[in-house]
Design brief:
The protein is of the alpha+beta class. The chain has one domain. 31% of the residues lie in helices and 27% in strands. The protein has a four-stranded mixed beta sheet with strand order 1-2-4-3. The longest helix is centred in the N-terminal third of the chain and has 17 residues.
Length: 90
């Protein structure tokens, strides 16, 4: 275990189109032992009812999103394992 957290940001320009790319990239990072702990997405271009919570959870991530049509919408995706970690002692 490491004390560092890997955070990334991505302007996906439509999560509906980019979801397979996002999932593959997250999986590739895990295979390289460089798992992304938190991913911030922008320009989802999805309404909340269309957001892929189940697909992301199946991949090991939980997320919160504020979706809108057209050019808006953001999400924060967090690796489930990160939520189970104990903070380092200070």
């Amino acid at each position: 275990m490491t004390d560092s957290i890997r955070i990334a940001a991505w302007n996906v320009n439509s999560l509906k189109v980019r979801l397979p790319h996002v999932l593959r990239w997250l999986q590739d990072q895990e295979k390289k032992k460089q798992a992304i702990d938190a991913l911030c997405l922008q320009e989802l271009k999805l309404t909340d009812d269309k957001y892929p919570h189940q697909e992301l959870e199946a991949a090991g991530y939980l997320s919160i999103a504020a979706g809108q049509k057209t050019y808006n919408g953001v999400a924060i995706i967090v690796r489930k394992q990160l939520l189970l970690m104990q903070p380092p002692p200070f």
